[in-house]
Structures are given as structure tokens and as C-alpha cells.
Write a structure and sequence with these properties.
8-stranded mixed beta sheet; signal; Metallo-depent_PP-like; glycoprotein; Purple Acid Phosphatase, chain A, domain 2; 2 domains; EC 3.1.3.2; 8-stranded antiparallel beta sheet; PAPs_C; binds 2-acetamido-2-deoxy-beta-D-glucopyranose; about 650 residues; binds fe (ii) ion
């Protein structure tokens, strides 16, 4: 018995079907209920953040209705190279109910195709062991469906390296009864190279391009072809490395069970020796064994400024975005209501910023791996054009007994693997998600709050080294970034804890921020916007609110976690250090005009307008000047 465990579960299905006397334990719902249930976070109950977790797919039973049908069209998508298409789903059901819903499965052959031995202790025909990749209420666009039994749905499908089928279920999401399955549809080239994301390399003159495809290295050679704009004849090719991850790499939960989906192959090419500020054109390619090429679309980016270069430099910062659905699917419990607005507002403004920092909690896939491709597709207009630098959040990394600093299940079992593979970051080790980054007059230190940062740890040593390595004459703007709030936030649950931060955050780090005169510390995790005075040890060190100048004394703390996921409430307690609070979706833009002038703006996602701002104006001597806990030693000798 045991030896059949992993191989060919499909044979096992047949085996079980033909011996119906073998008792199949009736699906216990404990597994997904655990995932779906709200869980506690610092004293308050958090919403479940993955709509797919509401579906009790193991409970699905076979109840095919011979007169029910689902038809999907067109049959072939992406004939002109598109990676996103709208499909029409025609539902006919003689016994319609408000509880009817359509599931999108990919691969199309969803029954038994990904079952493992353990699954058979709980599932029943039709043996569905993987979650749909999205779903929609049949009445959503046509309330009349419950009378007519007919509905036309419009769904947006992206190329995810496999074919698709659409299944009609009755019984709602908790007792799904399979009524009918559609024809299979597919993209013309399911393996196409897609969803490029740019990231800075370890050196300022290097840009990395990471993308996803269905081509393993034994089938095709991946590379990026690129040239300075207007210098097509000087085109070059850079080879790409290839990575992937498997179900066994997941730590548990949905990621190792119903949420698992093959991520394909993830390629990264390193474009080196870039000329500062020049625009480059690029496209991804795969050279097949027969010598033919498969190409992506052509994209462009602007190379980074030389570190210290005095020129206009603009940075976008936000956290906690999530994924939106333009077709309204998954809508009955849309957990990330601001994601589309933030994305669209940033796309419209693409010409007016140079680099993006997404400071953790990216897709909220939470173990449903299909959601990562959908998130990458959502961000592609941005991530293919400007470096998209990411930090790790609880929804990327946390899982009990997996080495995450917080022993909670927020990653749905991913334990960091998808995020660390799908995105390149210039870290020594992407599983230790901390790194430094130079961008012109900015020096960024990106921390990883899902690993210990306290005094004495490897990460603490990194943070100190990173902060110390900014030459403030060349890089006056020193920025600290982390996912969870290690500084100050008036968020409700932090208020209940009484600390207004993660325990052991500023207690361990504020000395470093002060010593190295960090200008601004940005945090996410709390889904709102808040700006704090320049502060040190709970005391505002400056009464000014909008035009800071002179000596750098204290660090300004900003929470920018309103990228799109459901909003967080503020505490009713009045926090003296708080200058501006906004319970809405938004993001931050930093503009360095030159070595002595910086502008911070907070914009709402809904209209892109500025709702809060301040400037910092100062000279080099103002950074050097001695302040409490921020003085260089001086000898009495002359
Ligand atoms: C679909 O929407 C209708 C109308 O809003 C609602 O009554 C029904 O419960 C929904 N069905 C499911 C399966 O969520
Ligand atoms: C799985 O689905 C295929 C086609 O959709 C069907 O031919 C086959 O009988 C199904 N197998 C089981 C075990 O339900
Ligand atoms: C810095 O802030 C501290 C604490 O408020 C204050 O005592 C000190 O005078 C300030 N130093 C300067 C140079 O502004
Ligand atoms: C820096 O930029 C600001 C804002 O544009 C401008 O007012 C100021 O004159 C500039 N300073 C220098 C030294 O160029
Ligand atoms: C998205 O933006 C539109 C247009 O400004 C606005 O009406 C809507 O309320 C925004 N949605 C959310 C969830 O903020
Ligand atoms: Fe978070």
C-alpha cells in the first residue's frame, strides 16, 4: 500500500472507484476550516485574507445533471500573443439556484490529477484535490438566472502555463455538487515567457529581469536580448538562470494541499555595465532545441543613476496590496478592495517615478499558488518598466515551526518559498530577506521583520552595517524599510497591546536609527497611512509639521500599508507623536530634488491626489552635527 503513495495517484483513483466497499472517510472539513477561520493577531481577530480558502473542495460530490451544461469560448486564447483574455462562459442549468457558482480549473483535467495518497482519506468522487484558480457566483451578472437557468459570465483569464476548464457547482462553497464541466480552452502558447519584473542587482549598474515560463532548461535556453534605446546594432544577450519549486518545498497548509499549483520555471537574467540614466529596450527569449526562438513582447527601462548623482529621483513606497479581480470574480468576499485602484493609479503615473518598493504582503496568495501568477500579471505594467523591489511580510513567510520569527500560519504554508523564488532581491541569501540598495542620492536598508532583528542577531549586524555604509555627503537620504511596524503606529491592535508597535521593535533598533541619523523609517502591515513626528525614545524632537530643516535629530516614521488589502482601524487613544492619519488606500512618493531637498507625499489610490506632505531641506553639515546619541567621538587633543 505504502509504496503506491506518491506515484500515479490517478491509478489509485481508478483502484478506489472499482472497490467501492473500501470505506472512504467522509471528508472532514477540519483542514480547510482551520485555514478559513479568522485567526488572532495581537489580540484582534483578523479576516481570512484568501477568498479561495472559503471553498470546501474536498467536500465536492459528483452530481452531474444531464441537461446542465457549461460552454467556454473562445477555444484558443492569445492568438496575437496576448497574455490576458476575456472569455465567455454560457451556463445552462434546468434547476438553477442562488447557490450555483462556476469554478475555473487549470489544469483543465482537475479530477484526480493532483491527488496524493493522504487525500484519499477524506475525498470522494469526483476526487478533486486542487482548488479552482478563481470562481464566480452564477447570479453575479445575471440575477434573473435563478428563474431562467441561463447566464452568461465574462471572466478574465491569464496565461498560467496550462489549459482551463469551467465547472458548474450547486450547493454553495461549503457543500459543492458538481453539475457540469465545460470544454477545455487553452492559450496558443501556454509556455510563453511572461510577467517580467525588474529589480536592481547587487551593483548600481546592474538590472535584473525575472520572468516565468513553461520552458525548463532541457527544452530551451532562456536569455534576455537588450540594447540601449536607439542603438539597436549594439544589441547583446544575457543568459538567465532558472529556478522552480515543488509541492514538497511547501511547509504545509493549503500550499502543500489544495492550493498547490505548478509555478513553471522562473528565470533571472543579469544585465550588467549599464550606463547611468540611459533607456534600454529588452525582451525575453527562449532558444528551442531546433534553433527556433520564442520571444516575449519588447519592454524598456531606465538604468539607475550613479550612486550620489545629483538629479531628480522619485520613489514609490507601499505595502499590503493583494490582488484585485477586474471581472468581479471571487467578489463575494473581496479581501483586497484597494488593490486595483492602487495599481491603476500607479500605471497612469508611470512616467513620474523611477523605482517602486513594495514593503511586504504582496499577493496574499496564502498558500494558493495560482494567485501569484495573477498578482504578477496585475503588476506587470509597472514591474516591467521600473525596478520593483520587494520586502518580505508575514503573508510571504510565516508558518509554525519553520524558522519564522512569528510562529503563525499567515503564509498558508508557503514559508517564503514562492516570494523568494518569484522575485529577485539583491540579498546575500533570499531566504534571509534583508538587503541594502543604492539609488542615486538614496540609500535604503530593507529589513525582514519575519526574522529576528534583535541586538546580537545576524540581521541586527546587517542593519548596522547597511546604515553605516551610506556616505551622507553623496547619499544624504537614508531610508529604513520593514514590513511590520518596528517604530510607531496608532493602529488599534497595537494600541490594545499598549506598545504602538511590534514588541521589541524600536527597543532594539532606535539606537541605530538615531546613531546613523536615519531620515525616514517606512513600515506596512497596518493597512492605513500614518505619519509621525521626528521622534526618538517616544519623544518628538521637533515641533515642526511640514518643513523640516537643519540638524537631523530623530527619525520620521511612516506607515504606508494601505496598498489595497482591507483597511485597519486606528486606536481611539490619542497618540501625541502622530501628525497625520488616513483610514484609506494610498501610497507614498519620495522625491529627491537634489542633495539638499526632499519631498514626501502621501497620495490616495482612488484619485492620485496628495493628502499629506512634508519637505526636508538641509545641508551636509546638518547631518554631521552632533545630537543626543548621534555624536561621533571627539578627542580633547588639538
Ligand atoms: C450569489 O449571489 C446571490 C445574490 O447576491 C446570493 O443570494 C447567493 O448566496 C450567492 N451565491 C453564492 C454561492 O455565494
Ligand atoms: C475525470 O474527468 C474526465 C474528463 O473531464 C472524465 O473523462 C473522467 O471520467 C473523470 N474521472 C473521474 C475519476 O471522475
Ligand atoms: C534633539 O532632540 C533632543 C530631545 O528632544 C533635544 O534635547 C535636543 O536639543 C535636540 N538637539 C538638536 C540639535 O536639535
Ligand atoms: C534643490 O531643489 C530645490 C527644490 O527644487 C530648489 O529649491 C533648490 O534651489 C535646490 N538646491 C540646490 C542646491 O540645487
Ligand atoms: C477606487 O477609485 C474610485 C474612483 O476614484 C472610487 O470611486 C472608489 O471608491 C475606489 N475604491 C476604493 C475601494 O477605494
Ligand atoms: Fe502584514
Amino acid at each position: 500500500m505504502h509504496r503506491m503513495k506518491i506515484q500515479f495517484c490517478f491509478i489509485f483513483v481508478t483502484f478506489l472507484t472499482s472497490f467501492t466497499s473500501i470505506p472512504l472517510t467522509h471528508a472532514t472539513s477540519r483542514y480547510y476550516r482551520t485555514l478559513a477561520g479568522g485567526h488572532r493577531q495581537g489580540g484582534s481577530t483578523k479576516f481570512n485574507e484568501q477568498p479561495l480558502a472559503e471553498i470546501a473542495i474536498y467536500e465536492a460530490v459528483l452530481a452531474l445533471h444531464e441537461d446542465a451544461s457549461v460552454k467556454a469560448s473562445p477555444n484558443v486564447l492569445g492568438l496575437k500573443g496576448e497574455d490576458t483574455e476575456w472569455v465567455t462562459i454560457q451556463v445552462d442549468h434546468p434547476e438553477p439556484s442562488p447557490d450555483d457558482w462556476v469554478a475555473v480549473f487549470s489544469p483543465a483535467q482537475f479530477n484526480g490529477s493532483t491527488c496524493s495518497y493522504e487525500d484519499y482519506t477524506r475525498i470522494q468522487p469526483p476526487y478533486i484535490c486542487s482548488s479552482p484558480i478563481k470562481f464566480m457566483n452564477v447570479s453575479y451578472e445575471n440575477p434573473d438566472y435563478v428563474n431562467t437557468g441561463k447566464s452568461l459570465l465574462r471572466l478574465q483569464i491569464i496565461n498560467q502555463r496550462s489549459d482551463f476548464s469551467f465547472a458548474l457547482f450547486s450547493g454553495g462553497y461549503s457543500k459543492p455538487e458538481l453539475k457540469a464541466v465545460s470544454n477545455t480552452i487553452t492559450f496558443a502558447n501556454p509556455k510563453a515567457p511572461l510577467y517580467p519584473r525588474l529589480a536592481l542587482g547587487k551593483s548600481w549598474d546592474e538590472m535584473t529581469v525575472t520572468w516565468s515560463s513553461g520552458y525548463n532548461i532541457d527544452e530551451a535556453v532562456p536569455f534576455v536580448e537588450w540594447a540601449m534605446k536607439g542603438h539597436h546594432q549594439a544589441q547583446s544577450r544575457s543568459p538567465a538562470g532558472t529556478l522552480t519549486f515543488t509541492q514538497n518545498d511547501m511547509c504545509g497548509g493549503a500550499a502543500r494541499g489544495v492550493g498547490w499549483r505548478d509555478p513553471g520555471f522562473i528565470h533571472t537574467a543579469f544585465l550588467k555595465n549599464l550606463w547611468p540614466n540611459m533607456v534600454y529596450m529588452y525582451r525575453m527569449g527562449h532558444m528551442l532545441q531546433n534553433g527556433e526562438y520564442v520571444w516575449s513582447k519588447t519592454y524598456s527601462f531606465k538604468a539607475s543613476p550613479y550612486p550620489g548623482q545629483d538629479s531628480l529621483q522619485r520613489v514609490i513606497i507601499f505595502g499590503d496590496m493583494g490582488k484585485g479581480e477586474r471581472d468581479g470574480s471571487n467578489a463575494y468576499s473581496n479581501k483586497h478592495p484597494g488593490a486595483i485602484n492602487t495599481t491603476d493609479t500607479l500605471i497612469k503615473d508611470l512616467e513620474n517615478y523611477d523605482i517602486v518598493l513594495h514593503i511586504g504582503d504582496m499577493s496574499y496568495a496564502n498558500g494558493y499558488i495560482s494567485q501569484w501568477d495573477q498578482f504578477l500579471a496585475q503588476m506587470e505594467p509597472i514591474s516591467s518598466k521600473v525596478p520593483y523591489m520587494v520586502a518580505s511580510g508575514n503573508h510571504e513567510r510565516d508558518w509554525p515551526n519553520s524558522g519564522s520569527f512569528y510562529d503563525v500560519d499567515d503564509s498558508g504554508g508557503e514559508c517564503g518559498v514562492p516570494a523568494e523564488t518569484l522575485f529577485y532581491v539583491p540579498a546575500e541569501n533570499r531566504a534571509k530577506f534583508w538587503y541594502s540598495m543604492d539609488y542615486g542620492m538614496f540609500h535604503f536598508c530593507v529589513a525582514d521583520t519575519e526574522h529576528d532583528w534583535r541586538i546580537g542577531t545576524e540581521q541586527y549586524a546587517f542593519i548596522e552595517k547597511c546604515l553605516a555604509s551610506a556616505n551622507r555627503h553623496k547619499q544624504p537620504w537614508l531610508i529604513f524599510v520593514a514590513h511590520r511596524v518596528l517604530g510607531y503606529s496608532s493602529n488599534e491592535w497595537y494600541g490594545l497591546e499598549g506598545s504602538f508597535e511590534e514588541p521589541m521593535g524600536r527597543e532594539h533598533l532606535q539606537h541605530l536609527w538615531q546613531k546613523y541619523k536615519v531620515d525616514i523609517a517606512f513600515f506596512g502591515h497596518v493597512h492605513n497611512y500614518e505619519r509621525v513626528c521626528p521622534i526618538y525614545q517616544n519623544q518628538c524632537v521637533n515641533n515642526e509639521k511640514s518643513h523640516y530643516s537643519g540638524t537631523v535629530n530623530g527619525t520620521i516614521h511612516i506607515v504606508a500599508g494601505g496598498g489595497g488589502s482591507h483597511l485597519s482601524d486606528f486606536s481611539e487613544l490619542d497618540t501625541v507623536w502622530s501628525i497625520y492619519k488616513d483610514h484609506d488606500f494610498g501610497f507614498v512618493k519620495l522625491t529627491a530634488f537634489n542633495q539638499s531637498s526632499l519631498l514626501m507625499e502621501y497620495k490616495k489610490s482612488s484619485d492620485g491626489e496628495v493628502y499629506d506632505s512634508f519637505t526636508i531641506t538641509r545641508e551636509y553639515k546638518d547631518v554631521l552635527a552632533c545630537v543626543h546619541d548621534g555624536c561621533e567621538p571627539v578627542t580633547l587633543a588639538a
